[in-house]
Amino acid sequence: MKKTKRNLGNLYIALIFIFMYAPIVMLIIQSFNASKSRGRWGGFTTFWYQELFQNESIMEAFTNTIILAILSAAIAVVIGTAAAIALARMKKRPRQTWLGITNIPMLNADIVTGVALMLLFTTVNVQLGFGTVLLSHVTFNIPYVILNIMPRFRELPPHIYEAAQDLGAGPIEAFFKVIFPEILPGVISGGLMAFTMSIDDFIITYFTTGSGYNTLSTKIYAEVKLGIKPEIYALSSIIFVTVLILLILLSRSGSKGRKMVKEVAL
Amino acid sequence: MKSVKSLLILGLTLLGAGTLLTGCGVDPSAEDVLFVYNAGEYLDPDVIDLFEEETGIKVVYDEFETNEIMFPKVDADPTQYDVICPSDYMIERMLQNDMLEPLNYDLLPHAINIDETYYEKSNAFDPGNKYAIPYFWGTVGILYNTEAVEEEVTGWDVLWNEKYKDEILMQDSIRDLYIVPLKKLGYSLNSMNENELKEATDLLIQQKPLVQAYVVDEVRDKMIGDEALIGVIYSGEAEICIEANEKLDYVIPEEGTNIWIDAWVISQGSRHKEAAHQWIDFLCRADIAAMNFRYVYYSTPNRACMEEELDEEELENEILFPDIDQYENLETFHYLGKEGDRMYFDYWKELKSVY
Amino acid sequence: MKNNRRANSFALFGMPYYFWAIAFIIIPLLLVLYYGLTSEAGTISLENVFAIARPAHAKALFLSVLLSVGCTVVCLLLAYPLCLIMVNRQKAQNSFLLFMLIIPMWMNFMLRTYAWQSLLEKHGVLNTFLNTIGLPSLHLINTPGAIIFGMVYDFLPFMILPIYNALQKIDPNLIHAAHDLGAGFWQTLWKVILPLSMPGIISGITMVFVPGLTTFVISALLGGGKVLLIGNVIEQEFTQAYDWHLGSGLSLVLLLFIVINMILSSVFDREGNGGLL
């Protein structure tokens, strides 16, 4: 009885995972399809993998995506950490107002955020492109940083900073020796979350980008209507397999790696 | 959500590879750069390399899906692209909005390669040929699977035949879509008459249950893969499909259809006017036109290219080089103004919201 | 005195963010408000907001709400049993499973959604499979059903994660106590587990409902251009019809929905620790 129940459970989990992975398998198969047309199987080939590195526009979209994600996460971490420090010391009323504002980009629909930013940029007549996309990504990234750091302050012993200063530390020293180590995990998780959000975004980028500047998302959206180039399948397969291998290596690399996987996963 | 974090850690290690590569955007005010905005799959990529090699000008190449998507982008900042390749009616619209720069034919020695017929046809949207050099032309018609479609296809009627429920592909861009019902009803495809448009929309609504999908370039993949049996398509695309799947055939419907010309124009205030002229002239060269013809496989208006570069077999192709005089009611699109666009768009939304 | 000065120096840290929030959060929303409440001539009018009542827009909004509710319900029904099964398993195994659940997110979501086209289409992989084992073809592609399908696929992890987090926090002793007091499986689920996992459910619902309501990508990918959602209307007003006033007016209507959703979820989730973060 208990065993059947467990097997049923396994079956259910398996079904969900088939559902999640079916299209990925499909994409990987497509990346080896010699025919350019999606509807036909033209035989097995690794041609698209060679072609990928020759394809400037796809490689450029890929680098753009990565650079954008790093820069926007980094800027968001600096501004967000500073803001969290200020907010933590604020009186309740103004703090709640600012946190309410901070919540807006997270709760708002992407399409409205995207449209709103586009209206701003075109109203002040800025050329749409890398700059405007970066500003937009920083905007939706900052909240993730702030909201990851704020709870750390709650765990901080009250007046620890003042205590450090009373013991002779200068204000900068007191900050970096006492407060910063305490909030560091929040800073890191916030920054990493910002990084993913930036990589994953399509809608806001779509509305705020201009000529010549594509991320992988906007590139793919444009190509969907024209027929996706098989090189794109090759690139995503590479990204996917790399992440998968790294995960498995990490969890196999002894107890420390397993602990890390466990720790970060939950 | 913490699990996202872990992925990120992994992701960061991935970055190593990514950050080694550079190239994030080109300064728009740089001297020897050219910003080109073209429709998707509408140029042999090798042509860009050749051009860069011969002139030393760096080309920043962007693609758009439809004219309607291109326009607001260019309108928001006309100087962001130097040369653009819109369709006839869109050129008319850009002209009315003062978005184009007149051409200097002294810088276009190869412009005479384009056949006089197409300059004449271009007069309809560009009086006096002051702004645009024809690039490709074609018709819109019906591509069908000759094995599955038994009756002889001659006109648009077949798209309303219940037998082919869920086997029909229609165009998704608004004006292209409306060619079909307007011509079927015997109206102009530039109609601004509310009653005619209403009638056309009703016809489309009536047809919607039979339609498998409204698509742009996906007609190609779906017809080649036998996902659908009948599709409305551009003549050039049709040719590509027939090459890949010989069961397919293309007809120009007898009720008439659209004949279109896509042409190169220079945007108003372009910062690289000379390079833009060099680009257009380069594309007019017979050998380059032949490269693009073989890549895009649409009808070329380039007489020199046809005479010097193409072989007999290529020229005998009835789909790419039809005897236009034989067909009546071939009409070019006109720009219908903001009001007209709005009207079509509203009717189109009405069609799309029916379920 | 000294303390005050310290507080002030910390307040300065917030300046860049205050500036940023005003410039890139508040002002853009005010611009949407401005465009939405004015006509092209620049006069104030509610015409663009009330445009939601036009048949085409009202139908699109209605369909969006319907599909999004459908997607949320399906996600909930799929995710809850999965999380229940998982919390009873070993933690190490679970973190691996959750991990595997997140990994697909590293492949662009549009590509993954698009791949469903090849799987679902008429002569696609699924139907070929069904026909081989003697079942009739499934007609799903290019229907509202396909859009729900695609949305469930894209948003399911956002339902699973908060529910799992909430379930995991439940003290197992509470469940043992319920059993000791004679409650059966269903009764325990209904009376103990469900109420305690409510914050996770609520935050899952929010995470799925809003993106579902406003999507324009999934309907473009799997709807075959036959299904018009409110997100598609807004996108096209901006990118094709170039009518910022109408686009903004309709966006304001969406904002209204989002605000209502926020209020409802804060009413249900009093603890305010919406499980995701």
Could you give the distance between the termini of chain C?
Answer: 37 Å
CATH C-level class of the largest domain in chain C is: Mainly Alpha
Distance between the termini of chain A: 31 Å
CATH architecture of the domain at 57-228 in chain A: Orthogonal Bundle
What's the helix count of chain A? 12
Q: Structural class from helices and strands of chain C?
A: mainly alpha
Structural class of chain A: mainly alpha
Which architecture of the largest domain in chain C would the CATH scheme give at its second level? Orthogonal Bundle
Average pLDDT over all residues of chain C: 88
CATH-wise, what's the superfamily of the largest domain in chain C?
A: MetI-like
Radius of gyration of chain C, taken over Cα atoms and rounded to an integer in Å = 23 Å
CATH names the topology of the largest domain in chain C as MetI-like fold
Put simply, the count of helices of chain C is 14
Assembly type of the chains comes to heterotrimer
Number of strands of chain C: 0
Largest sheet data of chain C: none
At the fourth CATH level, what is the homologous superfamily of the domain at 57-228 in chain A?
Answer: MetI-like
Biggest pleated-sheet summary of chain A? none
Poorly predicted spans of chain A: 260-266
* Shape verdict of chain A: globular
SS elements, strand count of chain A: 0
